[in-house]
Specification:
By secondary structure, the protein is of the alpha+beta class. It is built from three helices and nine strands; from the N terminus they run H-E-E-E-E-E-E-E-E-E-H-H. A hairpin with a 3-residue loop joins strand 1 and strand 2. This is ATP synthase F(1) complex subunit delta, mitochondrial. GO terms for molecular function: hydrolase activity; proton-transporting ATP synthase activity, rotational mechanism.
């Protein structure tokens, strides 16, 4: 008897919760970094992001989410189907109940603007810095730089 009562209460709470949410069929993306704003509440079809909990795609009506970006590629599919790729070094992604999404990157660049040979030079430089680092702090900073440079090279190739 108590199981049935509890199930009814859970169902009623779920129904009230879904009534409060105001999902939209449009997904508005705000994507910015310190160096540039790429999208300012623009309506898009899909966003794919790299996060430390795994890469995932975002569509309208996605469950609200907060995630930390890892170095990698953010892909944005416009409503007309055009796919644009951006390299991000780090940052955060927030998916809200109203289908708005904010991608805030520490640094971001259009993939087309990345020079592969410069990216490889950066990777080599940071690998050397890592191997010659003396303190734990210097090793940690160099390891982070190597991780970002490796993702940059992978994105540019």
């Amino acid at each position: 008897m108590s199981f049935v009562k509890n199930a009814r209460l859970v169902a009623l709470r779920g129904a009230r919760l879904s009534q409060k949410r105001s999902y939209s069929d449009d997904m508005k993306l705000t994507f910015a970094a310190a160096n540039k704003t790429f999208y300012d509440a623009a309506v898009v079809r899909q966003i794919d992001v790299p996060s430390f909990s795994g890469s995932f795609g975002i569509l309208a009506k996605h469950v609200p989410t907060l995630a930390v970006l890892k170095p990698g590629v953010v892909q944005v599919t416009d409503n007309d189907g055009k796919l644009t790729k951006y390299f991000v070094s780090s940052g955060s992604v927030t998916v809200n109940e109203d289908s708005s999404v904010q991608v805030l990157a520490e640094e971001a660049h259009n993939i087309e603007d990345i020079d592969v040979s410069e990216a490889r030079q950066l990777l080599s430089k940071y690998q050397s810095a890592l191997s010659s680092a003396g303190s734990d702090k210097a090793k940690a900073e160099a390891a982070i730089a190597v991780e970002v440079a490796e993702a940059l090279v992978k994105a540019a190739e």
